[in-house]
Amino acid sequence: xxxxxxxxxxxxxxxxxxxxxxxxxxxxxxxxxxxxxxxxxxxxxxxxxxxxxxxxxxxxxxxxxxxxxxxxxxxxxxxxxxxxxxxxxxxxxxxxxxxxxxxxxxxxxxxxxxxxxxxxxxxxxxxxxxxxxxxxxxxxxxxxxxxxxxxxxxxxxxxxxxxxxxxxxxxxxxxxxxxxxxxxxxxxxxxxxxxxxxxxxxxxxxxxxxxxxxxxxxxxxxxxxxxxxxxxxxxxxxxxxxxxxxxxxxxxxxxxxxxxxxxxxxxxxxxxxxxxxxxxxxxxxxxxxxxxxxxxxxxxxxxxxxxxxxxxxxxxxxxxxxxxxxxxxxxxxxxxxxxxxxxxxxxxxxxxxxxxxxxxxxxxxxxxxxxxxxxxxxxxxxxxxxxxxxxxxxxxxxxxxxxxxxxxxxxxxx
Length: 414
Hints:
The protein contains nine helices and 14 strands. The chain is α/β, with parallel strands linked by helices. The chain starts with a strand and ends with a helix.
């Protein structure tokens, strides 16, 4: 008796194309999903396991979501069933944003009053506004819960024969890289409906066949992942079945990547009891690696977003597990054209000069202080670590940046 899975890397589902793509990015992405689903059904897999960054941002449009989810569900259309809960969900998200803005305003007033003895009337008015919002939020949450409970039987019937999709949260689809914002995101909405299943160490997915059990657990992205002392994100210290797969959205690699990129190497987590550790986040991936009878793998991202990926051929893995054996077959996507046909090489040449200039900037930054990583999120994390800034303050800063990026991306999709 065997357990079989499709292993699918980061998807970054979005409608607007990256600047360096030559093809119709969204059409290509949909063709890849069709092929992944076809291969999964033809192999009769028990589940599709996806590494996170299922979406490229926390709140893709409902039109895009409906299209891609219909493909993942092998043609089953659920748009009519989830329309009303989605309307209420967007209202709830709006309440949450307004609540946070008012809370921040109160904090600012409080800070000012401590310094200038400002009157408290404005603060009291804001408290009343928050109280009203909380009441509205509770009412809205009850409406959403009621809607979900009402449609679940119909939804479960529709997707009864669909291959389950198990995944973790990636940094792109969470506000401020925080799993605590899951319920405000499209990913969280689909998870709450039962369309996708988010796995964790506390919420494993168990598959049982003829007295054999395969457990799938996961760790979603968070701000401290791959930091020193967080190796436990990757480590399973108690097996939950005859076979155990651990899924994670983190920068695991089979070799040292240097000091600039925060990462974890396989040799740091060989104490894990998981039979198979599957990771995403790093788009180029690494080959199946065996250490002490345990396997580690990254199949690589499905879309190619950067020129550096021009030689890479997107693929998925078909994992077969029995009580006595583990094997992996790699399926290279036929729907993925040659990198030179879809990525703009001329932009690479233009960017080479910019990269040389940026290298000088990076050198200057290093001279100012040790900052590991150079995207905005990494810089905030590094500054927070170096200056001993409280995690709560850091997470708020990250969430504000994430919200700003989201607004920018939403404007681009229109």
